[in-house]
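User: Show me a protein chain along with its predicted structure.
Assistant: Here is one chain, sequence first, then structure tokens.
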Amino acid sequence: ADDNANIIVTGTTRSRPSLESPSPVTTVSEDRLEGTGDAAATASDAAADGRLAGSGFRRGGDDQIVAATALPEWSPARPWLAALDAAGDKWLEEQDRLASVHGALPLFWFDVAEWHFQKGRVVEARRAVTSALDLPARDNQTLSIVAARLARYGDLTRAIALNEQLVDRENERPQPLRTLAVLLMSRAEEHRAAGWIDAARADLRHAIALLADAVLTVRREQYRGFEQTALMDANLAVQRYRALGGLNYVNVFPAELVRMLDTDIRVVIEWNTPRTDMDLHVTQPDGQEVYFGYRQSTNGGLLTADVTNGFGPEEYLLRIAAAGTYTIQTNSFAEDRANPNGPSTIAARIIRNFGRANQTEELVDVEMQPDAGGRMLIGRVVVR
């Protein structure tokens, strides 16, 4: 199938610098890659930082690497979005009219939220997406989608609060613990940047404890390879906690599990449905395709797990990236047409320089289209 057909992708680029770099790497500039687009940004809300449709960074030193992620544009063909576009400056009246017809569906509010976000109206985006929580049709999937959107819209505190509810509601599987921990790590970086070191340490302590629980506690629902992905996050949290002078909470993990493994490229996908087998595929510049049938390439590209029973995560790691284009795809599957939350979605984190001082990442939502078949493009990382 054409990997550009029937794709709905949203994304946010964020820079999350590590506090303790295992290698002397610094960011010296940030460049746009030709052919990637700028998303609308809001000047009034710095918390929703980032660009939507791709970005670049340059790694300093003798071995300079320029990397960028090229993403398809967000363009769902649903009637209410066309109506909002046609309304022009009278979008508020049109939104109210459409809500009287479609507003019982969480999917409607998810689309309206993203429509606002793409136009730089972050406050409206947050207000729209949280409207889904007031609907009779809401469920745990609604909660997880709203939390993920709020995180991408820059409201980490509310996203964290919703994920805490999800941890309580779905305590038989480990993924909500890891998701909450990753959000706490992001908020800790915001606290650190603002000079609130005690608050940053508190969030990191909480994140480390959650990840220890996720990795070390045996639950009714087990997911192949989950522990390795969670340990990558845990070691980043430990590194940042130590860099802030933290000493306790590090020993909740056995010593043999504590080691920071920095990487040039890290890709992690999760999805919001049980009993579904989504597969991550990364095609490297040399033509090798890393996926469930070929989990380790000759140059060290590694798929850490093939999760077949829902939710993920699946993870690709490459410690040293050769020059060229890395194409990131996932398979598609038929949606549940009766789901008021709409098609299932994959949430992807495309991370460069993981665990280093110039770590950057892009948060991407990929909507799985019905009857699309074949592969769906998540993005491309170009290394030069």
